[in-house]
Amino acid sequence: MELFPAMPYEEWLETKDTFHRFAQIVGKVRLAASPRRNHWWNVPFHLTGRGLTTRPMGLPNPFSIDFDLVGHRLIVDRVDGRSAEFSLVGQSVAGFYARLFEILDDFGIDVEIQAVPYDMADGTPFAQDTRHAAYDPVLVNRYWTVLSQVAQVLERFAADFCGKTSPVHHFWHTFDIAVTRFTGRVVGAAPGSDAVAREAYSWEVISAGFWFGDEERPWPAFYSYTAPEPNGLHEQPLWPDWAAWIPSRGSHLAVLKYDDARQSDDPVTTVLGFLASAYQAGAKLTGCDAARLASVDGVTDPYLEST
């Protein structure tokens, strides 16, 4: 299998817009049916060997919802052994929404969601959206391949840090995959932040991830940011030298374009080096004790070499 296959933004935009809405519907069920965790860690999806999962949720009869992106089906499983599924191919957003909630109703699962897209230009309610109905299995499977490969690179990056860190998880609202390191300093979000941002950024963080592109930046890329952003962050050096800091909503993102990484001599080493350089930039300016929080290759045992 090719490492980091091509993922041109425009090529899969229609399929992406449809599947992103599918993901938001399931994600909103996850949000409504799961206990709240610090920094919203209960909200994102996790990866499986075939796609994405909500993980079990709900009491007294836990259930889970999985996207099988190899067989291209949505699967709902309940702890009592009941299971139902349907094909993702040929579904409009309205059809997907109706099918999922029919299954939940049949299973006796009572959950209410805000049934409109989050932070999308077209805010048509899910139940009325028959326009978004593009689902190309080849392109969705390529998205899944990229996602699963990137996840393993982020897991490798996560191994070198032993402080508080998030899982590697896929956010359905922003459609990125990320892992976040916490410096240990409680700072509180910026004044005027909404409830989502206040919880997400109540502690100082240095985050790393990958997103598939958007209208403003129509190309996939690896990224990193520090929040709150310390003065002078965007002046810190990045590696490789073709990575760059770009303005983003009043702050800055360190960005390494996916196509630049995949065409390098050693894509994995390039991405890890980029993420490390962005982390060091943030750690330097926030006063994070990077040496104390290091766990090279995931090892913290001080006696390893002597035994």
UniProtKB/TrEMBL annotation:
Superkingdom, natural source: Bacteria
This protein's name: DUF5996 family protein
Originating organism: Nonomuraea mangrovi
Higher taxonomy: Bacteria, Bacillati, Actinomycetota, Actinomycetes, Streptosporangiales
